[in-house]
Structure formats: structure tokens, C-alpha cells
């Protein structure tokens, strides 16, 4: 039997329900994957709460790792017994086993454990496209990163440093400062909407930053705009505090001809080839020691509601991984 988590209504962690099903035979282009680790991401929480709409009822989760147990007709990318991971839809990662498209599986190197892969691939691809495509970071780039002590921040910060950037990290609590510094931040600020932009001006000696990576949303939006140099880029890629209010085009002009973008992982992995390219760069960065999976906690799949609550309430100090 297969155990999976199903979402029949949106709400808090308590709406997550378990279901039992039979093993399925893969169809054309599919594999049957026996999962050994499952990644938990903020997007999962947004889908569960209804902040990001999904068609109900549905499974949940976009990141996992495991063993290929059966392949369907036409599958050439992987073989039975391969260790693989993935970091995009279709939804349904919260399960002990599942069907999954073969072309979107990533073969794992022997030195990368399954739980590490489930902790790093989704967040790593996010960091990769933010730093290389959304805004090409390089030597001398000044970067402001919110959540610098969190699971994504602990990948985004060292990768930005490797590319030559000066990184100002932002955290929500004083006890997170040391963790953000350990990730590689040159400076760390505890968020205060009234003072953040002024602090950025002081740190940069009036230059401000070239790019702001902001997954917080409503709470941080104005401070993010005010931290940017003329023609700087605000990358609003999440809404942990709610979606920002609509911004008038004239505001971007008045603040220095700023650029505003709202990227998504889906748009940057739409084709299998682009997805595999970004995933390969993440694995290469892991192998080179540029980034490292930082697992804060393993939970049994049965404790998925507790895992969601810990991430939602800000207790997580790194990646959360579910074990079927």
C-alpha cells in the first residue's frame, strides 16, 4: 500500500489528511518511484493555506528523492534501481511512492544522500535562477537578501558570495544573526521597516544595493524599494507576509527608474532541458562545496502537520525533510 497526503480543503496544518492507495503501473513516459525523502518548502504552505490556489482535492509537495522501481513505455532517461530526485510538479511529493514523469527526474551522484537531495534541489534551483537569470550577479554586485538565515538563504548567500557579490542579509530575529553570518553575509540586519533602508544606505556609503531578493512580500516591500540604487531590481519572489499592495508605475520612476519582477520556479523550469540544466548546476555547486544542504529536522511523513507548523511559525533553522 501507498500512503499519501491529500488536501481536500485549504486552511491550517490540520487540514492535511492521509490516504491509502495501491501501487500503480507507470504509463508512457512515467516511472513508479519509491520515495526515501521528501522536501518541505514555503510554497507547500502557501498552497495548503489557499494563498496560492490549487485545484482541490489534490496531493501536496513538489520535491522528493527515491528509487526507480518500474518504468513505463518509452522511458530511456532512467532505469530501475536508479537513485533520483525531482523539484517540480506535478503535485504529490508527500507520499511513500508515486508516479512521476521520467524526463523531470534528476539522477543523483553517489556522494549525495537522498535526504540531502530532497533538502537542496528545489531551493537550489531557486537560488540558481535568481542569481544567474533574474539578475546576473557577479563581482562587485551589492545584494540584499531577506531570510538570510533560512533554508533558501543558506544557499543563496554563499552562492552569491562565490559569484563575487557583497551580501547584506536580513533576518527577523536577533538570534538568527550568527547563522546568517555563518552563511557568508558581509553584514546582517534585523528587520525593522522604519530603519532598514537607512541602514542599507549607511552600509553601502550611499550607493544602496543593485538587487533585492525579497520572499517576504507585504511587510518588506516598501523598505525593499527604498534600498535600491537607481535602476536597481526588486525581485519579489514570495509572499510570506502576504502579497504586496499594487504599486503605481510612477512610483518606480520616482524612486529611480526601478525594475520590479515576480519570478517563479515554474517559469524557469518550463522545459525539461532548462530544468535539467539548472538542476545540474545545483549538483555541481554541491559537489564543489559552493553550497551545502542544511537539514534542520527530519520528520516522519505521519508528522507532516507538525513540520508545517514549525516552518510556518518560524522555528525552522534550515531545511525540513519528511521520511516516508
TrEMBL record:
What positions does the domain Enoyl reductase (ER) occupy? 11-322
Q: Which Pfam families match?
A: ADH_N, ADH_zinc_N
* This enzyme's EC code(s): 1.6.5.5
Q: Which GO terms describe its cellular component?
A: cytosol
Keyword Secreted part of the UniProt annotation: no
For the protein in the UniProt heading, the enzyme class is: oxidoreductase
Keywords noted in UniProt: NADP, Oxidoreductase
Reactions catalysed, as given in the entry: 2 a quinone + NADPH + H(+) = 2 a 1,4-benzosemiquinone + NADP(+)
Q: Which GO terms describe its molecular function?
A: mRNA 3'-UTR AU-rich region binding; NADPH binding; quinone reductase (NADPH) activity
Identify the domain of life.
Bacteria
- NADP keyword on record: yes
Family to which this protein belongs: Belongs to the zinc-containing alcohol dehydrogenase family. Quinone oxidoreductase subfamily.
- List, alphabetically, the PANTHER family matched: QUINONE OXIDOREDUCTASE PIG3-RELATED (PTHR48106), QUINONE OXIDOREDUCTASE-RELATED (PTHR48106:SF13)
The name on file for this protein is: NADPH:quinone reductase
Species in which this protein is naturally found: Pseudomonas chlororaphis
Amino acid at each position: 500500500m501507498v500512503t499519501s497526503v491529500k488536501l481536500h480543503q485549504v486552511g491550517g496544518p490540520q487540514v492535511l489528511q492521509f490516504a491509502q492507495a495501491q501501487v500503480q503501473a507507470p504509463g508512457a513516459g512515467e516511472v513508479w518511484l519509491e520515495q526515501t525523502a521528501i522536501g518541505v518548502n514555503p510554497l507547500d504552505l502557501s498552497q495548503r493555506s489557499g494563498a496560492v490556489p490549487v485545484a482541490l482535492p489534490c496531493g501536496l509537495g513538489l520535491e522528493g528523492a527515491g528509487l526507480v522501481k518500474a518504468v513505463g513505455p518509452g522511458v530511456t532517461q532512467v532505469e530501475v534501481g536508479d537513485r533520483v530526485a525531482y523539484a517540480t510538479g506535478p503535485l504529490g511529493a508527500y507520499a511513500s511512492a508515486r508516479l512521476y514523469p521520467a524526463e523531470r527526474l534528476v539522477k543523483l551522484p553517489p556522494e549525495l544522500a537522498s535526504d540531502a537531495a530532497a533538502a537542496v534541489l528545489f531551493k537550489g534551483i531557486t537560488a540558481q535562477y535568481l542569481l544567474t537569470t533574474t539578475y546576473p550577479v557577479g563581482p562587485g554586485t551589492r545584494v540584499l537578501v531577506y531570510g538570510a538565515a533560512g533554508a533558501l538563504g543558506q544557499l543563496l548567500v554563499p552562492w552569491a558570495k562565490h559569484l563575487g557579490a557583497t551580501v547584506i542579509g536580513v533576518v527577523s530575529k536577533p538570534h538568527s544573526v550568527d547563522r546568517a553570518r555563518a552563511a557568508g553575509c558581509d553584514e546582517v540586519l534585523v528587520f525593522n521597516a522604519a530603519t532598514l533602508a537607512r541602514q542599507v544606505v549607511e552600509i553601502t556609503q550611499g550607493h544602496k544595493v543593485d538587487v533585492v531578493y525579497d520572499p517576504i512580500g507585504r511587510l518588506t516591500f516598501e523598505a525593499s524599494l527604498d534600498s535600491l540604487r537607481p535602476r536597481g531590481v526588486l525581485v519579489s519572489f514570495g509572499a510570506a507576509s502576504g502579497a504586496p499592495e499594487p504599486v503605481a508605475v510612477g512610483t518606480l520612476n520616482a524612486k529611480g527608474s526601478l525594475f520590479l519582477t515576480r519570478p517563479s520556479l515554474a517559469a524557469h523550469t518550463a522545459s525539461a532541458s532548462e530544468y535539467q540544466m539548472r538542476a545540474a548546476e545545483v549538483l555541481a555547486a554541491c559537489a564543489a562545496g559552493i553550497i551545502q544542504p542544511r537539514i534542520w529536522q527530519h520528520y516522519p511523513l505521519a508528522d507532516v502537520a507538525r513540520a508545517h507548523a514549525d516552518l510556518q511559525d518560524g522555528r525552522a533553522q534550515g531545511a525540513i525533510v519528511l521520511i516516508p
